[in-house]
Amino acid sequence: MNDALTPSDAGVTRAEACVIACADAWHGAGEVMASPFGTIPSLGARLAKLTFAPDLVLTDGEAALMVGAPPIATKPTELVREATMPYRSVFDVVWSGRRHIMMMASQIDRMGNQNISAVGPHAHPKVQLIGVRGAPGNSVNHPTSYWVPDHSPRTFVEHVDVVCGVGHGRAAAAGEGALRFHDVRRVVSNLGVFDFETPDRTMRLRSHHPGVRVDDIIAATGFELIIGDDVAETRLPSPEELDVIRVVLDPGSLRDREVRT
Amino acid sequence: MSDKRTTIDDIVGELSSGMTIGIGGWGSRRKPMAVVRAICRSHLTDLTVVAYGGPDVGLLCATGKVRKVVCGFVTLDSIALDPHWRAARQHGTVDVMEIDEGMFFLGLQAASWRVPFLPTRAGLGSDVLTVNPDLRLVRSPYGVGSPYLAEPADAEVELVAMPALHLDAAIVHVNRADAAGNGQILSPDPFFDALFLGAAERRFLTTERIVPNGELADETHPLSTVGIHRMLTDGVAESRGGAHFTANPPDYGRDEAFQKEYAAAASDPAEWETFASRYVFVPEDEYQARVEERQAQ
What gap in Å lies between CA B145 and CA B166, rounded to an integer? Predict the structure, then answer.
């Protein structure tokens, strides 16, 4: 921890640090669809829209775009909607690139390949997962980030068992068609923030969350992370941001169910 | 104009073992469950099921009807993964062609448009291409010097050639329909139901209520809700509660308590026996009566 605590430091939970880290993934995104999966990425996208990324477009989780960034527990009947967005139209958005998704990953590897299909061989899965969903298409068409709420050597692995979301090496090997719009940008876990801003596009520790030691992250990662000399701490929320998280968006503290302090 | 009214049993009577069958809806939403249940009770076997998968896939796998599933996922929405599907995959009792959701859409679109494939970036670099080794790439014929090349990076670019997903039959459930085969969807997402019908040889609607031709639209429901026209349908069967236990707003939401029971039954053969004898291997009217009974309690 830093030696001097600002007023907003006091009592900032791990979940709140994760919300800020997710929100920052949409910094400068402009007028694109933010598609967050999980409670904390959803809070991050809404926080971003209410503060530094007001043009973000959010869906109601069904088939419409919603006005504003309502509290996370808002009932569907109370949402205000501005346009339709059925699944058929989502593909128009995906393939035109006007989207930055934050998907979850059951496994992610050092090149940013993501797996949500199966653990073990695909032909005979040890554990069947939900399926590739839209991950292959998302990852080669628009900015893609990942949220992993349970950082461990089982989730951060040397090689994923099934490549669903396409990482940097695989995209380059697949040629210009895969590479042109490929932009796997950031990984946020319950321990830290990671990117691929390295010469060989392997995963780098970008920041560690407050209260997490870099050694803890190394121990929880199943491959060799790139770690700079002076790794920053994930930034803390401003008092205004903390207020938006605690009072406006998530007064019921659903965030603490996804990441415990 | 022909009268296309039929029954659930007659629809299932038109299917045969080994067929490739498309099922509309998405996840645990607006699935033609009455037909799915009737298939479970039938002698049909060895089916290839093409679906944005939900409990339709799970039930058909649990009753041993399926040889192969073409899908991008199988989910119950409020329960992330259908446990009957998980069991079938982990026990190796079904084959799968697992593809990106967008590739799936293009496969139906290609079949509907009568072209052999449609190109896409989706799938490039992923294991979708390695676990489905028969999928092929296609090279753009437009290169340097072509007046149609807008972006140098696209010169002779290689893309996935998503093959047409031809269906022997397709079944979708809609809120209202008429005897001519026009279908109306009153919830906000029509999903890909019209494309399932377009990709199929034999096309069937089930619906909560059949109304007279020309009366689907009214003051509250504009004509734009009638997204399925009669050139896409061969038969339409009235089936109240036909999508139960999946969500079919505004007629009814998902029956979460029922779905939980369905999912829990995957954990133990004895529990499955109990569930199936009560809710699967019974005629549809009995099923609906039992559901009503539950809801009255």
Answer: 37
Subunit contact A125:B121, Cβ cutoff 8 A: no
Instruction: Answer whether A177 sits within 8 Å of B103, measured CB to CB.
Output: no
Q: Scanning every residue of chain B, which has its alpha carbon at the shortest distance from the alpha carbon of A92?
A: B102
pLDDT tens digits, residue range A41-68? 999 999 999 999 999 999 999 999 999 9
Contact flag B101-A178 (C-beta cutoff 8 Å): no
Residue A191, domain member (yes or no): yes
For the beta carbon of residue A68, count every other beta carbon within 10 angstroms.
12
- Choose among B92, B98, B105: nearest Cβ to A131: B98
**How many residues are there in chain B?**
297
Q: What angle do CA A15, A19, A25 make, to 5 degrees?
A: 145
Closest CA to B254 of B71, B76, B53, B46: B76
Q: pTM value?
A: 0.96
As a whole number of angstroms, the distance between CA A178 and CA B166 comes to 27
- What CATH number belongs to B5-100+165-213+227-279? 3.40.1080.10
> Is 0.85 exceeded by the ipTM?
yes
In-domain check, residue A92: yes
Question: Cα–Cα distance between B64 and B94 in angstroms, integer?
Answer: 9
Contact criterion met (CB below 8 Å) for A137 and A181:
no
Q: In this model, does residue B32 exceed pLDDT 80?
A: yes
- Domain of A250: which CATH number? 3.40.1080.10
Residue A177 lies in a domain: yes
Q: Cβ separation of A131 and B53 shorter than 8 Å? A: yes
CB atoms < 10 A from the CB of B255, how many? Answer: 19
Using CB atoms, pick whichever of B98, B105, B124 lies closest to residue A91. B105
Pick the residue from chain B with its C-alpha nearest to A117.
Answer: B73
Per-domain residue ranges of chain B: 5-100+165-213+227-279, 117-143+153-163
The pLDDT value given to residue A105: 98
* Spatial contact of B73 and B25, defined as CB atoms under 8 Å apart: no
Q: Is residue A1 part of a domain?
A: no
pLDDT tens-place string over residues A121-131: 999 999 999 99
